[in-house]
Amino acid sequence: MRKITTLTDGWHFLKSAVSAEEAYKAAMRGEAVTLPHTWNAVDGQDGGNDYHRGICWYVRELSKNETTGDRLFLELNGAAHTCEVYLNGEKLCHHEGGYSAFRVELTEKLGEKNTLAISVDNSSNDRVYPQKADFTFYGGLYRTVNLIAVPAEHFELLKDGTPGIKVTPVVDLEKKTATVTVETWHNAPSVDITVNGETKTTERCAQFIIENVHLWDGVDDPWLYMATAKLSSGDEVSCRFGCRVFSCDPNKGFFLNGRSYPLRGVSRHQDLKGKGNALSYEDHAADMAIIRELGANTLRLAHYQHAQEFYDLCDENGIIVWAEIPYITMHMTNGRENTLNQMRELITQCYHHPCIAVWGLSNEITAASAVNEDLLENHRLLNELCHRLDPTRLTTMANVFMLEIESPILEIPDINSYNLYFGWYLGELEQTDEFFDEYHAKYPGRVIGFSEYGADANPAFHSSRPEKGDYTEEYQALYHEHMLCMIEARPYLWATHVWNLFDFAADGRDEGGKHGENQKGLVTFDRTLRKDAFYLYKAAWNRKESFVHLCGKRYINRCEAETEIKVYSNATEVRLYMDDTLIGEQQGETIFRFAVPLMGEHLIRAEAEGCSDTMIIRRVNEPDENYIFNKAAASVTNWFDADEIDPSCFSINDTLGEIRSHPQAGAIVDAMMAKGASERGDVADAVKDNPALQRMMGRMTMLSLLKQGGADEESIKQLNRVLQGIKK
Ligand code: GCB
Q1: What letter does residue 426 receive in the DSSP assignment?
Q2: CA–CA distance, 10 with 8 (Å, rounded to integer)
Q3: Do residues 474 and 637 lie in contact, with contact meaning Cβ atoms separated by under 8 Å?
Q4: Phi first, then psi: what are they for 372, rounded to 5°?
């Protein structure tokens, strides 16, 4: 028999980098905590780069009752980021990597009285990923810690946190069978393995054929089988598995069980306002309920290994997963071993989950590093490791927009993907479309996906003329309307993942009216508010539950005489009522737009397929200042009315490329930019040396380039006057 005791209570926490001996004494007087726990639940989310990063201690006495059993192991499911386990003052192990599980044997070191002291370190170094990324590196024992007591003959527990059992189902779609290979690791002479009601006794490994196999078939039918392995000592391990076939086609995208199954979904980080990453099962399950409500069929579990409970939820809900390690932003010469270790642990611990389709090698790794031989070699080794440990799945990586599509790194993984933020950080929305069209035309034989895209929105901010950078809920919605349409027109994209389903802690940020948060979520950090863009995807993806959603509910006070009311719905017909009078009826799909006259305060109601949604809006004389984040930038919106600009002459609304194609106009902007460049040398060098960046800038309008460069109102107007003097 195997006895698992979860060590929830009885921990003493010490926020101090003392020695192991001192830790015991000091911690016993220190704060009492329960696990899971992070010491950054508050300071990791309030911005300013000042969250506590260092060594902290967790100390606990083990009772007699807890230490019985022939062999005793300690299991840590998440210790962020570097951890050392001491028993009775003696160091038993050192583990680097904050997202994978690991175990250590205590048996030989047990005494009459037993004290565990565990140090956890989230300070910076040059070896353990992540070190540079847009999320808070919470420290703590933020997942469960268990004691596992097993008989002398037992399944392997130590190697890479293995479950001791590995199940590989290979499906023959034509014959409707699955050949299931079950391998086990243990120290007994034989093992009984049971799959689908059939038991085989073997040394280590057995094969089973499942006839008329019930496929694990995505969100509609995620059927799971069970494999169990038992030793005569009574030790037993089991795992669920699913029988399915994945494949990717450069033109047709993703296939599940032989049929086209476009992967359309979102990314998720593992944190929650007020709790940090110390999540309970209920928190994970609540997130999954939101994912199901949205109607997504895929998740990118970014940027590291998530909790086993969460992969289990994905298995149960038929969500196809991109799993990855935190090899992110910046390549470290000393970090190679750590990337390989984290990948080995990820695959070993997650291999059996039918939900996982691809292993992600890295994320935006060239954002702060050159593509040199060391980086390439690191990727080749990771790629080989993935294929060696798991020949059944594909590898991929998420590339940063400025990585040239000719880069040799794109030849390493099986399939490719890009994170693109045109229309948010820089450039125009349409550049996304052009980027993929160019890539697809140049590499028709390569599989390409869209691993990240998004725009920040603070639901307090609103505008009737939403603009890039204004943090309004309306711009976020417009941004995603464009992307949804772009994606639907490109069925070759093997997967698309919105960045991000939830707002999350990014301690380095201080923007958009909030500290320490990335607000690209479709749902707020505390999960209480679904932004309008959430309902756009729900309208497009959720085919199960009819609904109708009125956009702009939080945008109550409006100055215009006629306002746009937008409705998102998965119905094909929507009716709009104003003060109980029907004012419009429309057929269509997903997005329904109505122009509505505003006189005073109005009750708006939308109806579709038996569902309804209501809101109040109000005509006011002056813009409501509470809705504007950046008051200075917002005034820019109204500098130029389209009709003031003569379209037969150049203007700041033309792209840099268009302007440059005219000798006189080109010379003017080049001179202006050269002046700017000499003032900001580093940026200029980065642009000069990067043809991808240059191409991208060529497609940006002069106005958006100037705004992003921080140009003031007067110099923008000045340039526009000069350009308006030049005939096209
Ligand atoms: C990215 C990163 C992600 C960031 C995101 C952003 O490309 O991969 O970690 O959070 O951009 O919001 O800037």
Answers
A1: B
A2: 7
A3: no
A4: -105, 180
Residues 256-308: tens digit of each pLDDT = 999 999 999 999 999 999 999 999 999 999 999 999 999 999 999 999 999 99
Q: What is the CA radius of gyration of the chain?
A: 28
Q: Which domains does the chain have, with CATH numbers?
A: 3-154 (2.60.120.260), 161-246 (2.60.40.10), 557-627 (2.60.40.10), 639-723 (no CATH)
| Residue whose CA is at the smallest distance from ligand 1 atom 10 | 134
Closest CA to 73 of 95, 106, 101, 100: 106
Strands 31-33 and 573-578: unpaired
Residue 362 · residue 327 · CB < 8 Å: yes
Which CA distances in Å does 576 have to 16, 257, 539, 615?
61, 42, 17, 11
Q: For residue 364, indicate whether it is catalytic.
A: yes
> What's the pTM?
0.92
Residue 176 gets the label, from left (phi > 0), alpha (psi -120 to 50) or beta, of left
Q: What is the Cα–Cα distance from 387 to 379, expressed in whole angstroms?
A: 12
Residues with Cβ within 6 A of ligand 1? 133-134, 303, 363-364, 419, 452, 499, 518, 520
Place of tokens 């992969």: 311
Q: Please identify, by atom number, the ligand 1 atom nearest to the C-alpha of residue 506.
A: 10
Chain segment 587-646, per-residue pLDDT in tens: 999 999 999 999 999 999 999 999 999 999 999 999 999 999 876 554 444 455 555 788
Strand extents, DSSP E, 551-698: 557-558, 562-569, 573-578, 581-587, 590-597, 601-608, 611-619
The residue type at 575: R
CB 639 within 8 A of CB 651: no
3-class secondary structure, 479 = helix
Cβ burial 330-364 (10 Å sphere, 16+ → b, else e): bbbeebbebbbbbbbbbbbbbbbbbbbbbbbbbbb
Q: Which atom of ligand 1 is nearest the CA belonging to 367? A: 7
